[in-house]
Amino acid sequence: MPLRSPFFKKKVCDFLVANGLREDVLDAYFCILDEDGGILAGAGIHKDIIKCVAVSSEARSGGLVAPVVSHILQWASERCMHNLKVFTKPENRSVFESLGFHVIASAQKAILMENGRGLESYCQYLASEREEGSGAVIVMNANPFHRGHLFLIQRASAYAKNVYVIVVKEDVSRFPYSERLAMVKAGIEGQRLGDCRVKVLEGSSYQISSATFPSYFLKSLDDVAPTQMELDLDLFSSHIAPALGASVRVVGSEQNDPLTAEYNATMKRLLPESGMEVKEIQRLMNGPLSKASAALSGSEVRECLDSDEHFIHALELSPVSSYPYLVADRACWSLVRELDTELKPGLVGPDSNGAHADMDYPLMKRSIQALRPYFAGLALACWKEEPAPADVLVRMGKDAEAAMLAATGGVNTHRGAIYALGLAVSAFMRGGELAVHEDIMQKRLAGLAASISSNSRSANNLKGARAMAESGYSEIFESWLPFYRSSGRSAKKTLLKIMSTLDDTCVIHRVGESRSLSVKKEAEEMLQSFSEEGLRAMCEGFAKERISPGGAADMLALTIFIDSIML
C-alpha cells in the first residue's frame, strides 16, 4: 500500500481500527485484497520490527497471516534485513513460531519474538567482554553524559568487581548514539576505581524502551508502560545479565520523572525473582538553576543547551571529556536558530524558501545534521595540549563539505558556515583551554584563520570570508554582537544589521556589485523603520529578484554562537 497517499493510508488505518488495532509508524504495509479491493489481511514493517498484523473477521479461517508475513520476510531479505522482530500478544505465539520466529522476552500481555540469531550474537559479544569476578550493570542513555552519570558509575564500583556500562543504542535522542557512546567511553577511559574494572559496552536493539515498543495491539494505553518495562527486564535478566555474569543492576534514584520512578520500582519488584539485586543510588545533588535541592539530570543539561545564556553552565555540569560534543551541539544549535528565524529576506526559513528554488527547510535541516560529526571532530582535534595542525583542520573541513553535498544532493547549503563555525569551534576549544572571554576568542580566531589560510591556497571565492576571519571577525565583536545583545537577541534585526554593513559575496554573485550596495542601504532603512509588514514586503521583493544574503546568514549564526559561549 502506498502509505504516502492519504487515500490508501486511511484505508489501512480503517482496516486496523476495524480489527482492534491502532495506527503505528510504518515504513511499508502489505495487504491481501478481495475482488472489490477490500483488505482481507495485512502486515507492516518499521525498521526491523514487523507491525500491525491483522486479518479481517470474515477471513480469519483462511490462513492468510502466513503468506502476508512471508512476503514481508522476502521483501526484507531483498534489502539485506535478515533478523526481524515482532511484538505480539501471547496467544499469537504459535502463528509466528510456524513462520520461524522464537520468543526472546515475555510479559503478561505481550511477547517479543525474532526470526534470526541477533540476540544470540549480541550475547556472544557481551560474553567476550566478560571479566572474571562479580559484575554489576548500568544501562544509560547519556543524553548527554554528565557528572551525575560519572558519579553513578563511581558509586556502582562498591557492588562488584566489574561494572559494565551499556549505552542505549536507539537514535531518538538529541545526541546520536555514536556521540553518546564516545562521550561515555571518553568519560571513564582508563578509570580503575579501586579494585573495580569499568567497561563501556555497545548498545543494541535489545534495550526496549517506550520509543521502540509498539503499543498498537494493547487495548488500554495504561498497559503500555508496564508491558514495555516487563519485556525489557525479562530480556535483561534472561539473556543480557547472564552473558556478562552479572548479578547486580545499578540505577539512579528518580524524584522528578514518574515513568522512570515506575521503571525503578518495577525493576526492584521483578529482578529479584531472577536472582538479581537492584541497587538504587541517590543521584548527585547539583543545585540546578531552578531548584537548589534537586538532583543533577540530563534534562537540566539539555535545558542549558537550549538556553541563550547558560551554555557554560551545561559545561560545568559535565566532565571535560564531554565538552567537544556539547560545543558541536552548540554549533548546530546556532545554525538551527538562524534557520528557524522567519521573515529573512531572500533566505530559507520555516516560512519560505526565499530566493532559492533548490533549497527548502527540510534540506537545510539535513545539511545541519550532516555537519554535526565534523564539528565534533574539529572540537576533539583541538581539545588537546597539542591540537591538530592547520592542514588537518582544512582536510576535516573538506570532509564536512563532502558530507553536506552528499546530504543535499549536491546543493551548497552551508559551505560558508563550515568555514566560519568550524573555525570558531576550533578556536574555542584550542589547546585544552576554553576561550570564554571575547578578547581571547578574537585573538584565537585571527591566529587560527591566518594559519589555515597559509595551508589552503584554493577556494578563491572565500577571500572575503578569510579576510574577515583573519581580523578575528572584528565586525562581530565591535558591532554585530553588541547590537544582537542590545536588541534583546533579535535574530531578525541582527540579520538586517549585518546585511547593512557586510559586503556579501553571495549577493554580489547573484545580482552584481551595484545592486549589492543598494541591498545594504535597504537593510539599513528597514532596520531604522522596522515593521513586520515592511519586512514581509522586503522578503517578497528579494525572492522575486533572487537576492540571497547567504553570507549574512552565516555571520548571524556565528554571532549567535559566539554570544552563547562567552562568560
Can you put this structure into words, describing what you see?
This protein is α/β, with parallel strands linked by helices and 567 residues long. The protein is built from 21 helices and twelve strands. A six-stranded mixed β-sheet has the order 1-2-3-4-6-5, sandwiched between helices. The longest helix is centred in the C-terminal third of the chain and has 24 residues. The chain is globular and about 75 Å long. The N and C termini lie far apart (55 Å). About 1% of the residues have low confidence.
What's the short story on this structure?
With 567 residues, this protein is an alpha/beta fold. The chain has 21 helices and twelve strands. It is globular, with a radius of gyration of 27 Å.
SSE topology sketch:
Layout: H1 6-18, E1 28-33, E2 39-46, E3 49-55, H2 65-78, E4 85-88, H3 93-97, E5 102-106, E6 111-114, H4 118-129, E7 135-140, H5 147-156, E8 162-167, H6 177-188, E9 192-193, E10 196-201, H7 224-244, E11 246-252, H8 258-270, E12 277-281, H9 298-305, H10 311-316, H11 323-340, H12 361-382, H13 390-408, H14 415-429, H15 438-454, H16 463-470, H17 474-486, H18 491-501, H19 505-528, H20 532-545, H21 550-565
Parallel strand pairs: 3-4, 7-8, 7-11, 8-10, 11-12
Antiparallel strand pairs: 1-2, 2-3, 4-6, 5-6, 9-10
Numbering strands along the chain, what is their spatial order in the largest sheet?
1-2-3-4-6-5
Main beta sheet, described?
6 strands, mixed
Rg (CA only): 27 Å
Structural class determined from secondary elements = alpha/beta
Distance separating the two termini = 55 Å
Mean pLDDT: 93
